[in-house]
Fold this protein.
Amino acid sequence: MGWWANLRQRCQTCSRVMLGAGLMLGTLAIAFVFMTAGAYGLAWTNTEQFCIGCHEMRDNVYAEFKGTIHDKNRSGVRAICSSCHVPHEPVALIIRKMQASWEVWGHVTGKIDTKEKFEKHRYEMAVKEWTRMKKNGSQECRNCHHFEAMEPEKQTEKARARHAKAQAGGTPCIDCHFGIAHKEPDGPGPQELKIAN
Amino acid sequence: MKGFTILLAAALALPAGAQAQDSAAAEALLKKSGCMKCHSVSAKKEGPSFKETAAKYKGKPDAVAALSKHLTSNPKIKVDGKEELHDALKTKNEAEIKNVVAYILSR
């Protein structure tokens, strides 16, 4: 406990309690600053501006997203990149953000920095995202689209039948609703993916 | 835009059964007609993919006529063992229909 004795010696007029309280407050203040900065940083990486900071996203998937129902619609409620591609739950969010560090590596090494390279990797990137959305039951879709809140009478007869079947069978949304915001890649779709649980 | 309009007009003016097509216009009409809700270009959905359809009609002389009829006459189809009516393309324009048919058959 050398550091404590040292501190006591430097501040002989302070009581033991005062010193302890001061140290605790200092630690709390530093923790608060770090947590706020961390939360701010995480929130910043969820913004549209951050996502299109790289031309790989801006010129490909973002350009395709522009004008779709999730970008522009009669009520003006939007789903941006992170609404669908980043989990909203704290633990899942941190895990996804850590995985995304590899995507930064991909950017630095220029893995998809041309249209041709992007197209070459489009299918494998789609499969990764479809797999994630199948495994979590398309949670990001269901953060906004709730089966319980749907009015079947307002859906077409076909949609009503498909949704009833999906709800009963626990089918993830992505099985049918893929390629809605981005170009559909060439190859087997989510229904054909074999996902090991 | 003007160039695109000319290109579109040229593509639509092609004779029946022609392979040349305006993919963007075909995709837009397919989307507008709700086709992509049950079909996909290459993936499995409730309905067969366009690639499957193209393979099914490959080499058949009546392919264009048969597919055109299928896409315009609300035929009865079976989904999950239940009978329902297939939706029609949301257009009456012959050239636009032929463009979509050529697009699907060339997948």
User: Anything to note?
Assistant: DSSP finds nine helices and no strands in chain A.
